[in-house]
Write a structure and sequence with these properties.
eight-stranded mixed beta sheet; alpha+beta; Aminopeptidase; binds coenzyme A
Length: 182
């Protein structure tokens, strides 16, 4: 399937991506209450932007956005959102990931499945993300997976009356293939 075909498939027709007991399946409108529950969980809320259920529903049909439910052995445990999958430079943003059962390797596997979607399903070139400087768990996860730190986007995210600086990290298609191909 070409990249254009993969991008244009309706969300509910997108093939799930599996690795071991973990699956990414296309988020449906009915999943959005679960997504918001995960996002608002006290362990997650301080690390990820907060959207309403309606904002998540709207994101499901945005061109260039791939919104996935993360399942472990058939049970939803989180979600991950990719944006700019139609970017002409093949540079995809891992916009958001959140998981409810942490520290069990689920985040690692879910990021690898999202990278598989980016590089192998869509044929894109670069996967990048922002992570807040105080989010050590997420930063360590990305570094261990081989994401390269590109720099710091200084005070680029407003949070209440503060501005947060973000690490910018990326992985390239050849780096993914050398280290992780499924
Ligand atoms: C970030 C997140 C997705 C990671 O998922 P997870 O299932 O907890 O992560 P894993 O169990 O796969 O752990 C991966 C790595 O995180 C690191 N890590 C785990 N716990 C940590 C901690 N308390 N402090 C620092 N690093 C930690 C380790 O390097 C671990 O690698 P290892 O297994 O090789 O030791 C998850 O914790 C989460 O939803 N956090 C809140 C939302 C969030 O921060 N999203 C990312 C925004 S950029």
């Amino acid at each position: 399937m070409s990249r254009a075909d993969a991008e244009n498939r309706p969300a509910d027709a997108r093939a799930p991506i599996r690795r071991g007991g973990m699956t990414l399946r296309a988020t449906t409108p009915d999943d959005c209450s679960f997504v918001v529950e995960v996002e608002r969980h006290p362990d997650n809320a301080r690390h990820v932007e907060q959207w309403s259920e309606a904002q998540h529903r709207a994101a499901l049909t945005l061109p260039g956005t791939r919104h996935w439910i993360i399942e472990h052995r058939g049970t939803p445990i989180g979600y991950v959102v990719l944006e700019d999958t139609d970017d002409p430079n093949g540079s995809v943003l891992l916009r958001r990931i959140a998981i409810i059962s942490k520290g069990r390797g689920h985040g690692r596997n879910a990021v690898l499945l999202a990278a598989h979607d980016c590089f192998e399903v869509l044929g894109c070139h670069r996967l990048w993300l922002n992570v807040a400087r105080d989010n050590r768990r997420a930063f360590n996860l990305y570094r261990r997976l081989g994401f390269v730190e590109e720099g710091v986007a200084r005070e680029s995210v407003r949070k209440g009356d503060r501005f947060l600086s973000m690490h910018v990290l990326s992985m390239l298609d050849r780096e993914y293939r050398a280290a992780h191909q499924l």
